[in-house]
Amino acid sequence: MAKVAFSLVLPERELASTEADMVVVPGGDGDFGVLPGHIPMISTVRPGVVELQDDGKATARYIVAGGFAEVTGERCTVLAEEAQPFEEVSADQLAQRLRSAEQELAEASPAARPAAEKAVSVAQDLQRAYAYYAAR
Question: What's the domain count of the chain?
Answer without folding.
Answer: 2
